[in-house]
Design a protein that fits this description.
- By secondary structure, this protein is an alpha/beta fold.
- It has 3 domains: about 80 residues, Winged helix-like DNA-binding domain superfamily/Winged helix DNA-binding domain (Arc Repressor Mutant, subunit A, Orthogonal Bundle), CATH 1.10.10; about 100 residues, D-Maltodextrin-Binding Protein, domain 2 (3-Layer(aba) Sandwich), CATH 3.40.190; about 90 residues, D-Maltodextrin-Binding Protein, domain 2.
- The chain is built from 10 helices and 9 strands.
- The protein has a 5-stranded mixed beta sheet with strand order 4-3-5-9-6. A two-stranded antiparallel sheet has the order 1-2. The chain has a two-stranded antiparallel ribbon with strand order 7-8.
- The longest helix has 30 residues.
- The protein is rod-shaped and about 105 Å long.
- Belongs to the LysR transcriptional regulatory family.
- Pfam families: HTH_1 (PF00126), LysR_substrate (PF03466).
Length: about 300
């Protein structure tokens, strides 16, 4: 394959052929007229024949130039279209990575509302607990559980404090005549008994004596799985009540005490500082902060 001429020279030829003016081509390309003339000279030397006929106060395409110009213009148009299409895909595709709990308990249920409000933006959601470098990886926005915003170059917005309280099915509570005091919970099976949230909540409630001894060990991990097991009456689960508002309202789960304990963590919306003003990021951020107000107890 023969090597292509320098792209700068081809670009100069396309502009001069379109305008039939070295001056106008130079203005469009941000070059001097002399620089454009030099690029055309290089291309003519490469082709081996003049591409323009120089006349007093005007130029015209030579026979070879007239044959070459439409094909070169078409090639540049194909490139412009390809880059425009790619840019459109990038600008209209919002890639989100979210921790599984937030993705399953809130985002999946509400993301459609964002797309109804912004039909021009396509959304790709990845639900993963793995750490993602938002500055370098192909995600625009992340939702992560953090003790506090930490990473430099990243903007963080609190969506919800990860406070927790015991939840259980009403039928399980009835097996011991109801839950009247925090101590009553110790009489029931506990899901994920080694979860540190159990120790923290009972300590906050002033209830000594919680132990995993004699309790079947399980490790469901995700709040969505714990919530399902709790609704099935399998045990008491330490959960973030804000994620289970509908289940509590419908009576599938009960929160016997209003007391919330905290490990100092929260769910944060995060994105690189460099993308703060990207239109799709701004639109999702504004929608997200407004939509999650009930989770934070804001009106």
């Amino acid at each position: 394959m023969s090597a292509l001429p320098p792209l700068t020279a081809v670009r100069a030829f396309e502009a001069v052929a379109r305008h039939l003016s070295f001056t106008k081509a130079a203005e469009e390309l941000g070059m001097t007229q002399a620089a454009v003339s030099y690029q055309i000279k290089l291309l003519e030397e490469r082709v081996g024949t003049p591409l323009f006929l120089r006349k007093p106060r005007q130029i015209a395409l030579s026979e070879v130039g007239a044959k070459l110009a439409p094909q070169v213009e078409q090639a540049f148009e194909l490139m412009r279209t390809a880059f425009d299409d790619t840019s459109g895909e990038v600008n209209n595709l919002l890639s989100i990575t979210s921790v599984p709990t937030f993705a399953s308990q809130w985002l999946a249920q509400n993301l459609g509302l964002f797309q109804i409000a912004h039909p021009d933006i396509a959304v790709r959601l990845d639900s993963s607990s793995g750490l993602v470098d938002l500055v370098r990886d192909q995600f625009d926005i992340g939702i992560r559980t953090l003790p506090a915003p930490q990473a430099s170059g990243v903007v963080s917005h609190l969506l919800l404090k990860a406070d927790f309280s015991p939840l259980l099915s009403p039928k399980l509570a009835e097996t011991i005549g109801g839950i009247k005091r925090p101590e009553d919970l110790l009489k029931l099976p506990v899901l994920d008994p080694e979860d540190e949230w159990l120790d923290l909540w009972f300590a906050t409630a002033g209830v000594p004596g919680y132990t995993t001894e004699g309790r079947p060990l399980s490790m469901l991990g995700l709040q969505s799985l714990l919530g399902s097991a709790a609704m099935a009456g399998r045990g008491v689960a330490m959960l973030t009540p804000a994620f289970f508002r509908d289940e509590i309202a419908s009576g599938r789960l009960i929160q016997p005490f209003p007391l919330l304990a905290s490990a100092g963590w929260g769910y944060y919306l995060v994105y690189p500082e460099s993308r703060r003003n990207a239109p799709k990021v701004k639109r999702f951020r504004d929608w997200m902060l407004e939509a999650t107000k009930p989770l934070r107890g804001e009106s």
